[in-house]
Write a structure and sequence with these properties.
This protein is α+β, with helices and mostly antiparallel strands. It has a domain of 42 residues. It is 44% helix and 17% strand. The strands form three sheets. The chain has a seven-stranded mixed sheet with strand order 1-5-6-12-11-10-7, sandwiched between helices. β3 and β4 form a beta hairpin.
Length: 362
């Protein structure tokens, strides 16, 4: 369905009306967003999927890759809790691997800023989107990035290693490689060992090329030396991380497995308790939690700013579609964009073009 078709926009507005009926304020965000904010949040990786341009007065700009960041900025500038927002509009994404995927598509969103009961807010957003998709043959998926974050933060290792693991939560292969290296299961490359054994590694360096200064390179070498001299993450903690990452079950069974792991990995205890409260809140809204899938690693490759509950709804795999709807909790993002002051927040988006495809396949 074309992103300019009347039927698509009619469907999108109908979804927005449903969210507005729940108390959401109708809002919008500029198509062109300051690139600096997005680069600070995501790093240079954002350039691989965002369209960029340059303005003589405003500098580098990016065509809106999503609504969440500008909506959070709006709320943190003028909003007060509790607040709910809904929006409709196009987002723009580069497609490097599949030319059949659109570079622009319509999103309808629902964002909730309410810290009174985070579990209830999570359930509210999930149930609202689930209700809109109730006539479709879709499968829900859920996870909790907060449990994995808590596990990393609780590891008995250096702060530098924990920070490196947190940066790469969104890159499963890199994350595993770091765990293996920090756990002593992967040898340090011989080239690095030789460099670190030199009394003055900078002495043999060729003329500097690129963006790094000599002092930055020296600091990096000091960090590598510090890491090489640190004790490895214990086999017990490494095995617990492996067990945590493998949890993939119906939500109640996953909760039991996570409680068992938390006995030996107590840092995840509070996050696991949060999962239990969320399941109770979902059940109170009529969600069949006994059949609800849960996977600890869900969302790790595509949901960079989420730090707690994450969810998605997918159509039949044979349709080869991206998720029809996604969402989650992003408390930390509000703190970053609020200049150090954050508020609990959760939201989700639906793609009406994918809904139409899934309907047509029934």
């Amino acid at each position: 369905m074309s992103t300019n078709s009347q039927a698509l926009w009619t469907r999108a507005r109908a979804y927005q009306d449903k969210f507005a009926a729940l108390g959401a304020v109708v809002t919008d965000a500029d198509v062109l967003q300051p690139a600096g904010t997005l680069l600070d949040l995501y790093g240079e990786d954002i350039r691989a999927r965002a369209f960029t341009t340059h303005d003589a007065l405003r500098g580098e700009l990016m065509m809106r890759p999503d609504f969440t960041v500008p909506i959070v900025q709006q709320h943190m500038a003028v909003g007060a809790e509790p607040a709910r927002y809904t929006y409709v509009g196009k987002v723009f994404r580069q497609q490097e691997q599949d030319e059949s995927r659109p570079t622009e598509y319509v999103q309808v969103g629902y964002e909730v800023f309410d810290g009174a009961d985070p579990a209830a807010a999570d359930a509210e957003v999930f149930a609202a989107i689930s209700e809109l998709l109730s006539d479709l043959p879709v499968t829900a998926s859920t996870g909790d990035i907060g449990i994995l974050r808590a596990a990393v933060q609780g590891l008995a290792t250096t702060e530098r290693r924990r920070a490196a693991l947190m940066r790469h939560l969104w890159r499963p292969r890199r994350f595993k490689a770091l765990l293996d290296r920090f756990g002593g299961r992967m040898p340090i490359p011989a080239s690095r060992t030789a460099l670190l054994e030199q009394a003055d590694p900078m002495a043999g360096m060729p003329p500097l090329l690129g963006l790094r200064t000599e002092s930055e390179i020296a600091l990096r070498i000091d960090a590598l030396r510090d890491d090489a001299s640190s004790d490895p993450i214990s086999n017990v903690e490494r095995d617990l991380m492996d067990a945590l990452l493998k949890v993939r079950e119906t939500a109640p069974n996953a909760l039991t497995a996570l409680r068992d792991i938390s006995v030996d990995l107590p840092s995840i205890g509070v996050a696991v308790d949060g999962l239990a409260k969320r399941l109770d809140a979902l059940a109170a809204r009529g969600i069949d939690v006994d059949a609800l899938p849960f996977e600890t690693s869900y969302g790790r490759t595509s949901m960079e700013y989420y730090d707690g509950f994450v969810f998605g709804f997918a159509a039949d795999a044979e349709l080869n579609l991206p998720p029809i709807a996604t969402g989650g909790r992003y408390d930390a993002l509000t703190t970053v964009l609020g200049g150090g002051t954050g508020v609990p927040a959760v939201g989700g988006v639906i793609r009406p073009d994918l809904v139409a495809i899934a309907e047509g396949a029934q």
